[in-house]
Amino acid sequence: MKPSFAFAPLAAAMLLAAGAAQAQQTYKIAYIDPLSGPFANVGELMLTHTQYAIEDINAKGGVLGGTKLQLLQFDSKLSAQESQSALQAAIDQGAQAIVTGGSGSSVVTALVQSVNRWNQRNPGKELIVLNHSSIDPEMTGKGCSFWHFQTEANTAMKMKALANYIKKTPDIKKIFLLNQDYAHGRQWANYGRQLVGLARPDVQFVGETLHPIGRVKDFAPYIANVKQAGADTVITGNWGQDMTLLLKAAGDAGYNLRYFNHSAGSVPGTVLAVSQAKLGQLTWVAEWHPGEAGVPRADALAKAYKAKTGKDFLAPRIEFTPRLLSAAIDKAGSTDATKVARAMEDLSFDSVVGPVRMRAEDHQLLLPQVVNTIAPVDGKAVKVGWEGTNYGFRTDAVYTGNELAQGTECKMVRPAS
Question: What is the pTM of this model?
Answer without folding.
Answer: 0.89
